[in-house]
Every structure is written in structure tokens, then in C-alpha cells.
């Protein structure tokens, strides 16, 4: 397996630390003029999502982690696994377990494309696009003319996600939602 | 990295103008004091033996007796001291220097170093002159002075001279796992604490000189016993936590210098680094007699960074390494 020396460290690099795959977020080179150089590194553990800060003597190296991000289409779930397919025309499929899907679960819509992070060839995490468009399947009846109030109500979307929406939203409408904050953005006109 | 860098400078036009003004200001500062500007080679036949400074090698075609291996200079120090031995008097140089592998927010492998030497000056005389130059240009308050020992006692809670190796190592565990600290020398621990604990704390203080370094960090400074401790007559100026300069009451003893070079190379070998050729011409100059003097090297790019109120060298260097 390849390894990276501190002078190759940069944001986005995937490395193995304490046996876990991590992504380097920030790398700062520090050195007293006449002294030993160090690299102060912020990493995110891709298994636990926890952020770590580690310091390395310059010249030390870390093993590369076999981690790649691929665009994949969500196909279906069999209850135990969520199945994704590569979009490169290879039709290659990957089953992601509940842990990998976790936070993305409430945004999963069949035939939509997600970023699947593979670690040693198996799905590690599934990341939804920043914005998704989903249909409202349940919400209290709309209150027309009440738009100025700026009040909100909960609406259940086709994937099961519940978001706060303006009072005028009705069942059957398609909404654009920010998956990072879980917030309503706007109605999608084309529906 | 084979991609073509952006053609545009990373520094603003305002920063480039300020750089030109800074250079004019520096030249005027020394003209007023009768310090002569000199130029010395950027490419020399010797690099530096310092274990923590790596020289960049070049392979020129040998001409006559010149060697086929040469080094981009990491500092104009040896050449300037040869001039001092030749009797030039007070001199300064705005030198372009190179340090392999040093790259980051406050490091660029190629940078502008202002280096000057003052025969007859002690370290404290030269500190006063550094303060005039830096504060005159930045318009900052006069620096205070704190010893290396006190700055560690105050901000890192260890005594760099008297704490045991075990205590220093334990203090470093906040940043490094004990297993990786095992291979650390005492100076490695002190350098780690300096970078991670002391420097960030100094960012909150006003301009401050740190003086009286441990003998093991004397580099090219003379050493004497003060308060019962062997201390190097070496000083650094920190402004907003940025290390601006490194100065010495210079070691002029050729025998002692020869020993330090040899010790450097032994340390390089045990650290798995290549041994560096010792600059015999420099040693010969010391033998002939370098006058008692103090000298200092000051990073002009960092000074400009402070002047512009930015915290990244790329904002003040037209084409840093990634765009060079």
C-alpha cells in the first residue's frame, strides 16, 4: 500500500490513522527557524465522523487509505441493504448497510444519484447531494393567504423525512430541500 | 503536481507596492547608519550542516576547478562572515535564500532574508537596532524582552533548562502519542512546545524578544554562563506570534565552530540525513579573524505580512512556490 509523507499532506487526502480511514481537512506546517519542523493536521475519521487533531514530525508518513468517492444511483432496499449502482455504464452494484446509509436514509429516492464512499471496495458512507427534490405526502391543509405570517408547519416527504415548510404548502407539491441543514428551500414549479 | 499554475500573482497590487516601499525603507535605514549593502553568491559550493535546515542541491556543469555539485544558499551567513574577516565593517544584504521542504502559511521554500552584521555590537546592542527597524516600519510599540526560560515557564509550564527529559516529554503528550515521543530528543520536545504552545500564546502579547537559548540551540551564537546556566547569546523577535528574526552575538572561535559543524553532521547521520560538506573557506576566514560582532537575519516576507495585516505569505509574495 502506498504511503504519504508529511510534505504530501493536503486537504482531501485519505490516510489510515490508528487503523481507521481518515480524510485530511487541514495541514499546517510549523517550524521554529532553527528547530524541528512539524505538521499539525486536522483529520476526520471516516468511520466515526469524529474530528481529530494530530501532530507529526515532518518527514513522518501515513499509509494511504483505499478510499474513493463514486457517483452511484440508488436502486432499492431489501430491508437489510440499500443497493446502489455505478453510473459509468458498468451496472456494477454495491450493497450499503444501515451504518453506511445512516444520515442519508431520509433523503434516499430511487433513481437519484448519491456519492458513495468506498473503503477497501465496500460502501463506507452515502452522501446525498446538497439539494434534493421530494414530494409532500402528508401535511396539514394549506392556509391560503397566510403567507405573510411566515409561520411553518411540519410536512412529511416521500422518503419519510419531515421538514418545516411554509403554511401554504399542500400535499402533492414537490419541494427543494437542503440536505445539510434539513431545511425547506422552495417549491419546484415544474410539478 | 504537473498542472500549470495560475499565471496571476497571489499577492495584491497593494502588497507588491508595499514590498517595494519596504525595500526602499530598509535601504534608507542602513544608508543613514553607514551600513554597506553587499551581495554574495546564491549558489555556493557548500550548504549548511544544521540538522533542521535542508539545502537544495544544484548540478551546474563544472568549469575549471569548480565542483559539479553546488547548493542554493539557506542564508548568506558564511559568505558575509568572510567579508567581515576581509575588513568590510558593518554590512547588510537583502538575500534570496532557499530551504528545502519548508512550505506553509508562514513558510515558502524561497524567501527574502535581510541579514546584517555589526562589528563591535553585542546581542543587546543589535536588539535595539532590530527594534528601531521593525517598529519604525510597522509603527508598533517597542518590544519587551523575555528569556527563553521564562517564556517556557510562563506559557508551557516547563523549565527548558532544568525540567527532566521525562517531564518535557510528558508535556508534549497533548500533541503526540507517547509511543511516537520516545524517539524525541530534548530539543525536539522544546521545538514542539515552542510551535504548538508558546508561539500561539505570544500572538496575544505585544512585540517580544526571546533571549538566552539553551546551549544545544546555540547554532552560530556564542555561549556563556548566566544565572548558573549555559545560555546562548541568541535572540528572536516575535510580533503577533510571528517569528521575525534570529540574531546572535556571533561565535568567532574557529575551533569551537569546527566542533559544532562536526556535531551537526553526527546528528545528521544518526537522524538518517545526508552529511553535509563543511565550508572550509568559512572556517579559514574565522581562522584569519572575524571581528567581534553581532548579526541577525530577518524575514522580509513575514515583515511585509505583518505590515499588510495578513496571515499568509501567499498574500505578500507575487509567486509563491505553488505558482513559481
Automatic annotation (TrEMBL), chain A:
GO function terms (MF aspect): translation elongation factor activity
InterPro entries for the chain: Elong-fact-P_C (IPR015365), NA-bd_OB-fold (IPR012340), Rib_uL2_dom2 (IPR014722), Transl_elong_fac_P/YeiP (IPR020599), Transl_elong_KOW-like (IPR013185), Transl_elong_P/YeiP_cen (IPR001059), Transl_elong_P/YeiP_CS (IPR013852), Transl_elongation_fac_P (IPR011768)
Domain Elongation factor P C-terminal: 132-187
Record keywords: Cytoplasm, Elongation factor, Hydroxylation, Protein biosynthesis
Translation elongation factor P/YeiP central domain sequence ranges: 69-124
Database matches in CDD domains: S1_EF-P_repeat_1, S1_EF-P_repeat_2
Protein name as it appears in the record: Elongation factor P
UniProtKB/TrEMBL annotation, chain B:
Gene Ontology biological process terms from the UniProt entry: lysyl-tRNA aminoacylation
InterPro entries per UniProt: Aa-tRNA-synt_II (IPR004364), aa-tRNA-synth_II (IPR006195), aa-tRNA-synth_II/BPL/LPL (IPR045864), EpmA (IPR004525), Lys-tRNA-synth_II_C (IPR018149)
Highest taxon above the source species: Bacteria
Entry keyword ATP-binding: yes
GO function term, MF aspect, one: lysine-tRNA ligase activity
Pfam families hit by this protein: tRNA-synt_2
Keywords from the named record: ATP-binding, Ligase, Nucleotide-binding
GO cellular component, as recorded: cytosol
Catalysed reactions, semicolon-separated: D-beta-lysine + L-lysyl-[protein] + ATP = N(6)-((3R)-3,6-diaminohexanoyl)-L-lysyl-[protein] + AMP + diphosphate + H(+)
Record domain Aminoacyl-transfer RNA synthetases class-II family profile: where: 26-320
SUBUNIT field: Homodimer.
PANTHER family, per database record: ELONGATION FACTOR P--(R)-BETA-LYSINE LIGASE, LYSYL-TRNA SYNTHETASE
Protein name in UniProt: EF-P lysine aminoacylase GenX
Species name: Marinobacter vulgaris
Taxonomic lineage of the native organism: Bacteria, Pseudomonadati, Pseudomonadota, Gammaproteobacteria, Pseudomonadales
Amino acid at each position: 500500500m502506498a504511503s504519504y509523507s508529511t510534505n504530501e499532506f493536503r486537504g482531501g487526502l485519505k490516510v489510515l490513522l490508528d487503523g481507521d480511514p481518515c480524510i485530511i481537512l487541514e495541514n499546517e506546517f510549523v517550524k521554529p527557524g532553527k528547530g524541528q519542523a512539524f505538521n499539525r493536521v486536522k483529520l476526520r475519521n471516516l468511520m466515526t465522523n469524529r474530528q481529530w487533531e494530530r501532530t507529526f514530525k515532518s518527514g513522518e508518513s501515513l499509509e494511504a487509505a483505499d478510499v474513493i468517492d463514486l457517483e452511484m444511483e440508488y436502486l432499492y432496499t431489501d430491508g437489510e441493504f440499500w443497493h446502489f449502482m455505478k453510473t459509468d455504464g458498468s451496472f456494477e452494484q454495491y450493497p450499503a448497510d444501515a451504518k453506511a446509509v445512516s444520515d442519508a436514509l431520509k433523503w434516499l429516492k430511487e433513481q437519484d444519484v448519491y456519492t458513495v464512499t468506498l473503503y477497501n471496495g465496500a460502501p463506507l458512507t452515502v452522501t446525498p447531494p446538497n439539494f434534493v427534490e421530494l414530494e409532500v405526502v402528508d401535511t396539514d391543509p394549506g392556509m391560503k393567504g397566510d403567507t405573510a405570517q411566515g409561520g411553518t408547519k411540519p410536512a412529511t416527504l416521500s422518503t419519510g423525512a419531515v421538514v418545516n415548510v411554509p403554511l401554504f404548502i399542500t400535499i402533492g407539491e414537490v419541494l427543494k430541500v437542503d440536505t445539510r441543514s434539513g431545511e425547506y428551500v422552495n417549491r419546484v414549479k415544474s410539478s | 503536481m504537473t498542472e500549470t499554475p495560475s499565471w496571476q500573482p497571489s499577492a495584491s497590487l497593494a502588497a507588491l507596492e508595499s514590498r517595494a516601499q519596504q525595500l526602499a525603507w530598509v535601504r534608507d535605514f542602513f544608508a543613514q547608519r553607514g551600513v554597506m549593502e553587499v551581495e554574495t553568491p546564491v549558489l555556493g559550493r557548500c550548504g549548511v550542516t544544521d540538522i533542521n535546515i535542508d539545502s537544495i542541491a544544484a548540478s551546474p556543469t563544472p568549469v575549471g576547478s569548480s565542483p559539479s555539485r553546488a547548493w542554493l544558499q539557506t542564508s548568506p551567513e558564511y559568505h558575509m562572515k568572510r567579508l567581515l574577516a576581509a575588513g568590510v565593517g558593518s554590512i547588510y544584504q537583502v538575500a534570496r535564500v532557499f530551504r528545502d521542504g519548508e512550505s506553509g502559511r508562514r513558510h515558502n521554500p524561497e524567501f527574502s532574508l535581510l541579514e546584517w552584521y555589526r562589528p563591535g555590537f553585542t546581542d543587546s546592542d543589535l536588539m535595539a537596532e532590530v527594534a528601531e527597524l521593525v517598529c519604525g516600519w510597522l509603527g508598533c510599540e517597542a518590544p519587551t524582552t523575555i528569556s527563553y526560560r521564562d517564556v517556557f515557564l510562563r506559557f508551557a509550564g516547563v523549565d527548558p533548562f532544568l525540567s527532566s527529559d521525562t517531564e518535557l516529554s510528558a508535556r508534549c503528550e497533548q500533541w503526540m502519542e507517547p509511543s511516537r515521543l520516545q524517539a524525541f530528543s530534548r530539543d525536539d520536545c522544546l521545538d514542539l512546545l515552542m510551535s504548538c504552545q508558546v508561539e500561539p500564546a505570544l500572538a496575544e502579547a505585544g512585540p517580544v524578544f526571546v533571549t538566552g537559548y539553551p546551549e544545544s540551540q546555540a547554532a552560530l551564537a556564542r555561549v556563556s554562563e548566566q544565572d548558573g546556566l549555559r545560555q546562548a547569546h541568541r535572540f528572536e523577535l516575535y510580533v503577533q506570534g510571528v517569528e521575525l528574526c534570529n540574531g546572535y552575538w556571533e561565535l568567532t572561535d574557529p575551533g569551537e565552530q569546527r566542533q559544532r559543524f562536526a556535531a551537526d553532521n553526527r546528528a545528521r547521520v544518526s537522524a538518517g540525513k545526508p552529511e553535509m560538506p563543511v565550508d572550509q573557506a568559512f572556517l579559514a576566514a574565522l581562522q584569519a579573524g572575524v571581528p567581534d560582532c553581532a548579526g541577525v537575519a530577518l524575514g522580509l516576507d513575514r515583515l511585509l505580512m505583518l505590515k499588510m495585516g495578513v496571515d499568509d505569505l501567499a498574500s505578500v509574495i507575487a509567486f509563491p512556490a505553488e505558482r513559481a
